[in-house]
Design goal:
The protein is an alpha/beta fold. The chain has six helices and eight strands; from the N terminus they run E-H-E-H-H-E-H-E-H-E-E-E-E-H. The strands form two sheets. Strands 1, 2, 3, 4, 5 and 6 form a six-stranded parallel sheet that branches. The protein has a two-stranded antiparallel ribbon with strand order 7-8. A hairpin with a 5-residue loop joins strand 7 and strand 8. The longest helix is centred in the C-terminal third of the chain and has 30 residues. The radius of gyration is 16 Å and the shape is globular.
Length: about 190
């Protein structure tokens, strides 16, 4: 079974972007993928800030990344870039920790003004970590994730359609990658 890990870079576990993560995870599980999540905000702050590569929590999180066939990197956009908490974790991923991985960025910001934050802020870091197969991703705006009267976050249909497209692409690419690995082992 193909494995996908979600790196959740939001500092708030009640953020609206969590509805995007839950939507993506449910969609991928329905397609038969094993999905794990790393909530970076739940990792020990001291380990992140002091770059404790040997920390049990960091080793475990990096192990999930290493075992994954694909990685989804999620972040709200603050000050025209992804969050600092996400950067502290990415700094702890081994130098070529994303080599051979299919990577899907999912960002959410207050307006379209920071639409290019995926391309100009995140993709260079992913490339340094060895990622060569980075999908276009989705940049959503806050108004596309609306809290209803019960306090639950609902995604607007336009955002769901965009997510469905990239999740289908991620599923197809990941399945192709896994099939190639299986064929290579049989040779």
């Amino acid at each position: 079974m193909a494995k996908i890990v979600v790196i959740n870079g939001t500092p708030s576990l009640v953020s609206r972007i969590n509805a995007v993560i839950e939507y993506a995870e449910a969609s991928l599980r329905q397609r038969g993928f094993e999905v794990e999540r790393i909530n970076v905000a739940e990792l020990p702050a001291e380990d992140l800030i002091h770059t404790k590569f040997e920390s049990e929590s960091i080793v475990k999180a990096n192990g999930l990344v290493a075992e994954a066939d694909a990685v989804i990197v999620v972040s709200p956009v603050y000050k025209a870039s992804y969050t600092g908490v996400l950067k502290t974790f990415l700094d702890l991923v081994p130098q070529k920790g994303l080599a051979g991985k299919i990577v899907l960025p999912l960002f959410m910001g207050g307006s379209l003004a920071h639409l290019l934050s995926i391309d100009y802020a995140l993709k260079p870091v992913l490339s340094v970590l060895g990622a060569r197969h980075i999908l276009s991703g989705v940049y959503a705006v806050d108004s596309q994730a609306v809290r209803n009267d019960q306090g639950e976050v609902e995604l607007v249909e336009e955002l769901k359609l965009r997510l469905n497209e990239v999740l289908e692409e991620l599923a197809e690419e990941t399945n192709h990658k896994v099939a190639r690995k299986v064929q290579a082992k049989q040779l």
